[in-house]
Amino acid sequence: MDHSGTPPTWGAITPRRPLIVLQTNNRFGDSDEFRGGGADPLDEAARHGREAVRVWREAIPDELRPLCHMQMEVRVRDHRARLDRFRRLFDEMQAAGTPANFQFADPHDQFVFEPECVETLLLEYPCIQSMTITEINFEHYRSFNVPRYAVSPEARYAMDIIDLAVKHGKYLSVSLQGVKWMHVAADVLNRPLFNKVVRNGGHVLPVNEHIGPQHLPRQTSVWGLWMAGLTRHWGVEPQSWWFENGRMISPGLFGQFQADNTRNMPAAMYRAMILQGALLGATVYQFEPFWDLFDYDNAACWREVIAPTLLEVVRDGLISSREQCLEKTPVAYQYKEARDINEFHENLRDVDWIHDEGLLARAAYGLWDKFMEHELIPNKSRYFFLPLLPPATPPEALARFAQVIRPGECASEAEYGALLDRHHPPQDTGTAWVAGINGHTYVMQSHENLYERQTYRVSLPRRVRGITGALTGGGLRLEWPPVEAAAAYHVMRVEGETLGLLGKSAETSIYLPRPEGESVFTVLAETSARETVTGTVNYLDYLVFSETVSLPAERVCVDANGAVRTEPWPEPEDTRPASQVVYPTFEGAEEHLGEAAELAERIDAFKQTYEAADWRGMLAFYAEDYGDSNGYHREYAGRAWKWWFFRNNTFCFLRQIRWWDFSRFAEDGTVRVRLFALCRALRRDDTPFGSQYDGTLRIPRTADEEVTFTWRRDGAGAWVITHTDPALPNFEEMLWNSRGADKTRLKLVPGKDGDPECLPEGQTNLLPMETNWLPPEWS
Fold first, then answer.
1. Taking CA 96 as the corner, what is the angle to CA 94 and CA 101, rounded to the nearest 5 degrees?
2. Among 8-22, 29-43, 105-119, 500-514, which is the least confidently predicted range?
3. CB-neighbour burial class of residue 145 (10 A; exposed 0-12, middle 13-18, buried 19+)
4. How far, CA to CA in Å, does 616 sit from each of 119, 241, 730, 754?
5. What CA–CA distance (Å, rounded) separates 733 from 357?
6. Structural contact between residues 551 and 532, judged by C-beta atoms closer than 8 angstroms
7. What is the dihedral of CA 446, 449, 452, 455, to 10 degrees?
8. Which positions ≥6 away from 142 have C-beta within 8 Å?
């Protein structure tokens, strides 16, 4: 590959020197006072710059600071005003020697920044070491018969920014949602952009932004660019938006309860995101939102997980090489070029179970429940990961794999499973996700929002047993039997869950200074001899074991009185639930379990019928006298479902029971059930809800996405719906999902349908453009 151009001024990115990009507090100037004109925007920009300098100096560990760039962003449409504010911001960072990452383009195309202004800042501020363009829509199809006239403005803009990065020796991170990197590599009209990425693969950093339900195809497609040798680096962007977007509230509870679920994501989830990137060879790590970082309001994520895990990645050399990844992947998938969205879906039929069938992905990774948990960690570990390779992958790169699968090669999940079995021998590693690579073994509990005790069985270095300790003279002598093939022994001091290295010994004893007060010690073996280690993991357990240094088996405890004892290494008891039932649940229905069980089956049938896009079948669930909370009836429901199924392509119904109400059952036979009841639909290539948001639609659009269904038996004894509150279906919500790009001023009132009298008093369904078109802080 031609990786020519000015070498990056920051120097080489390597597994021992990864690039870490940290979002800074971009809310300066967003206060009500500022929006009202009470603060000077240039002063606010300078304050933002000073804040970036402060957190770079004070909140980042010394060992990580040389690896970090501070991501700076200003969102103003006027290019001159934006340039002036960036100058004030970078003045502060340049004076302090703080390296900057400069972000200036995202999916809101009204905020892309003039390249001439970008170059001006690159020339004036050497502190800018990298740039970011993110979330841009690269899904683009046109039937115009001369392709060079049909290339999208987004692609042309990205090409110009790549040229600037190469010219000035800057790294350019391109962090994309959905499967947009697959679109860059597959869509015919993106070929000029893709060719430029490949020619400049030493400067362009493809990054997987962790948001949305397509994590595994997105991760492996970005990884696949690097595995194909088309770029020198690839990266991940862990973020808590992924948790919120996945409607994960707490273990076993799904839905949309909180106004801001990002702060509810358990900090430990960041560890899984970082470690998965490292074991797959990622050398770029970007992080947002800023409030999870440094010393801001949700900084426990930074202090307890993000910074310690990054230190572990760097200190222990966890980032795998391409050769190590290739050794783990005998099978790859090469997707095909696409001239239209239907051709693109020939790829997704194999690799994406959200927007298509995902037959190969289901075989390789397993699927717990479509759209639930968003599947960060695979449910199967036998097949490791499958790189998704671009159509333009060179023949010599394809030759590295024992088999390269092409679209449509198998007709079912079972056939793909049999194909994978031929290349991956069976493994007896338990029910957790287990993988060994780069001298380390990873064990991860595979559920992102569910307690479940999972087993693991792994082969690790043989542990040291039979350690003895004695206080003699002025010191403590530790002795132990030899371990087969041991090259050295690591003598460790134990403080809580932390092991600190006191020294290494080639002998089977060591003499330490006499400890003061209570102290605990252990000895580890550096050996090629192995033993089988078994255990269990549960929710949020993400373990990394060394394949060269053993785990502790015993500890020597010295108490305050000088007594010395040896005891087995303690195994903490797992007090978390061993399993959970997500659906169906019957709390509150104990006196009517028979009827509740029948209704749970009926809800399952509703789900199956919805996912089959059977509008007549859906209509059969509604009673002849059905009425919704807006005053509409059965025929309305049938027409609405018919339109919805006609308009979209694939469907998924998510449900979880919130409560049962049998209070009127004896009186009139009705039962009320409150459900998290989210109707998902996927649409191909439709703006603004197709290409920009990967075609993912949803109803209801209420804040909690819950619906109370009232059920009653009909004359034949079948349970039918007599009422829904809020209305499901609501035709206005469905039509709002389909409004054109010229209808940006329309505001939906969730749960209502159309008529002005349905709106809250004094409210109209049209808002001024400046209020609804742009977020107020960006106007």
1. 55
2. 29-43
3. exposed
4. 59, 37, 17, 25
5. 26
6. no
7. 20
8. 150, 189
DSSP structure string for 488-518? EEEEEEEETTEEEEEEEESSSEEEEEPPPSS
Q: Which residue has the tokens 């696409």?
A: 338
**Cα distance between residue 385 and residue 421, in whole Å:** 14
- Contact between residue 736 and residue 744 where contact means Cβ atoms under 8 Å apart: no
In the DSSP assignment, the letter for residue 381 is -
Q: At what angle do helices 79-96 and 115-124 cross, to 10 degrees?
A: 20
E strand or H helix at 355: none
Tokens describing residue 256: 């949309």
Q: What DSSP state is assigned to residue 304?
A: I
Q: Specify the residue for token string 């018969």.
A: 145
- Which DSSP letter does residue 455 get? E
At 664 the pLDDT is: 97
Rg of the chain (C-alpha set)? 29
d(CA 603, CA 675): 10
Measured CA to CA in angstroms, residue 165 lies from 68, 126, 193, 753 at distances of 18, 13, 14, 50
Q: Is the pTM of this model over 0.85?
A: yes
Two tokens, residue 267: 């900090």
User: Which residues lie below 8 Å from residue 505, measured CB to CB, with a gap of 6+?
Assistant: 488, 489, 491
Share of the chain above pLDDT 70, in %: 92
- Cα separations (Å) of 223 from 90, 333, 448, 752? 33, 12, 22, 44
Distance CA 372, CA 367 (A): 9
Q: What is the rounded distance in angstroms from the CA atom of residue 651 to the CA atom of residue 242?
A: 21
Tokens standing for residue 532: 């089988």
Max Cα-Cα span within the chain: 93
Q: What is the DSSP letter of 633?
A: B
Per-residue DSSP letters for 323-336? HHHHHH-SEEEEPP
* Helix pair angle (341-351, 215-227), 10° resolution: 100
Specify the DSSP element, H or E, that contains 85. Answer: helix 79-96
CA 549 to chain centre: 31
CA-to-CA distance for 281 and 188, rounded, in angstroms? 29
User: What are the structure tokens assigned to 253, written together?
Assistant: 């509870």
Would you state the structure tokens that stand for residue 528, as one six-digit string? 């090629």
- C-alpha to C-alpha distance for 98 and 88, rounded to whole angstroms: 14
Residue 258 is predicted with a pLDDT of 67
> In the beta sheet, which residues pair with residue 296?
none
Whether the CB-CB separation of 89 and 47 falls below 8 Å is answered with no
d(CA 711, CA 729): 16
Using alpha carbons only, what angle is made at residue 629 by residues 623 and 633, rounded to the nearest 5 degrees?
Answer: 40
At 595-642, the pLDDT tens digits run 999 999 999 999 999 999 999 999 999 999 999 999 999 999 999 999
